[in-house]
């Protein structure tokens, strides 16, 4: 049997091009039918097209006369262009495990197709020709890899933003809502004990329960408004700061059980920035909430602010107390409030620590940076 000539050469040269072009058209046609999904399934058809190109690449250009070789070279040029487009699409959309097979196959098909045309050249010249055709292969891979990398970075940024938002919401709910709920529980317990003997005290306890409930609802409304986006957040009340500590301490003491005392010099309040002041308020809320939960028998809790040249020191100290808790409760597990506030204080340039103090008491110590002079 003789070698294929004439129309047979043209047909053999056209088969890989038609296959590759058909695959590309199938991937991009009918955009409403899930073009992105089909682009993600291009790896196997593209590998088949590359293998077909390699099989026919060493037969078509050398078959027949010079005209047949020229026709084969023309088909190969067109076929290489389509394969490069497929390579960019595969690199952009296909799963990584499939790229390990299809990318080398297409690279071989594109870089090796001219070699049968230069059989009389030296080995180094053949290597140079293959290296020259490797440049568009690299460009096609880069064209697909760059948007793939950008999308991956965008997805990671979105995931990190969502995680940070969830953490912020959990901190907000823990710091404010948990404190108010703890106060409601204590007031309800106190009202139950005094309702029969002193109804007037029970009425006062119910009023304090109402205020704590409204405060918890306000904190939840603020959180929900923040979820609605910046348009809704613009109307949200600012976070509490140290200026609201006196009312917080008064409500805590009025709830009964533990007497809280606040020592907040005016210079300490002025030395704190808005962010540091909000952090100080949250630290005091967390400390008092922990006193209520873990040391209900404490007789006294002291909140003291002191100003140093570079920081505002905050100390919340409670004693063990000798009075038993009014109602026995199961020991509460440690939460995430203190670790979260420790990270928040570090982010502001400060520190926070907590541990046993004195004869069975507890002390929380925080150091927050003072406001720079140009921000006053």
Task: Describe the 3D structure.
Helices cover 64% and strands 10% of the residues. Strand 2 and strand 3 form a beta hairpin. About 5% of the residues have low confidence. It is α+β, with helices and mostly antiparallel strands and 376 residues long. Among the domains are: 114 residues; 136 residues, Histidine kinase-like ATPase, C-terminal domain (Heat Shock Protein 90, 2-Layer Sandwich). Strands 1-2-3-5-4 form a five-stranded mixed beta sheet. The chain has twelve helices and five strands. The longest helix is centred in the middle third of the chain and has 72 residues. The termini are far apart.
Q: What is this entry, summarized?
A:
By secondary structure, the protein is an alpha+beta fold. It has helices at residues 7-28, 35-40, 43-57, 66-93, 96-112, 123-194, 199-227, 230-233, 245-254, 266-271, 274-294, 337-347, and strands at residues 259-263, 300-307, 311-318, 351-357, 361-369. Among the domains are: 7-120; 241-376, Histidine kinase-like ATPase, C-terminal domain (Heat Shock Protein 90, 2-Layer Sandwich).
């Amino acid at each position: 049997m003789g070698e294929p000539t004439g129309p047979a050469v043209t047909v053999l040269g056209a088969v890989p091009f038609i296959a590759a072009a058909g695959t590309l058209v199938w991937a991009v046609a009918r955009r409403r039918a899930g073009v992105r999904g089909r682009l993600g399934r291009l790896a196997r058809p593209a590998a088949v097209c590359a293998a077909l190109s390699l099989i026919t690449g060493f037969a078509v250009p050398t078959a027949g006369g010079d005209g047949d070789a020229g026709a084969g070279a023309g088909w190969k040029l067109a076929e290489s262009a389509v394969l490069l487009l497929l390579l960019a699409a595969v690199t952009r959309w296909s799963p990584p495990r499939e790229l390990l097979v299809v990318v080398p196959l297409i690279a071989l098909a594109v870089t090796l197709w001219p070699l049968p045309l230069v059989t009389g050249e030296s080995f180094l010249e053949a290597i140079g020709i293959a290296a020259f055709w490797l440049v568009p292969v690299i460009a096609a891979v880069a064209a697909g890899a760059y948007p793939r990398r950008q999308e991956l970075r965008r997805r990671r940024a979105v995931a990190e933003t969502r995680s940070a938002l969830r953490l912020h919401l959990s901190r907000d709910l823990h710091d404010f809502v948990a404190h108010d709920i703890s106060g409601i529980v204590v007031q309800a317990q106190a009202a139950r004990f005094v309702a029969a003997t002193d109804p007037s005290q029970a009425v006062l306890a119910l009023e304090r329960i109402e205020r704590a409930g409204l405060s918890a609802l306000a904190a939840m409304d603020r959180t929900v408004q923040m979820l609605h986006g910046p348009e809704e957040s613009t109307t949200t009340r600012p976070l509490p700061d140290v200026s609201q500590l006196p009312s917080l301490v008064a409500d805590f003491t009025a709830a009964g059980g533990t007497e809280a005392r606040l020592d907040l010099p005016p210079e300490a309040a002025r030395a704190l920035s808005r962010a540091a002041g909000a952090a100080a308020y949250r630290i005091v809320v967390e400390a008092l909430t922990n006193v209520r939960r873990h040391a209900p028998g404490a007789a006294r809790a002291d909140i003291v602010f002191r100003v140093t040249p570079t920081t505002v020191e905050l100390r919340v100290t409670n004693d063990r107390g000798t009075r038993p808790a009014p109602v026995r409760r199961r020991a509460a597990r440690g939460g995430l409030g203190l670790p979260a506030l420790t990270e928040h204080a570090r982010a502001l340039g400060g520190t926070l620590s907590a541990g046993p103090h004195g004869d069975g008491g507890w002390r929380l110590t925080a150091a927050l940076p003072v406001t720079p002079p140009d921000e006053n």
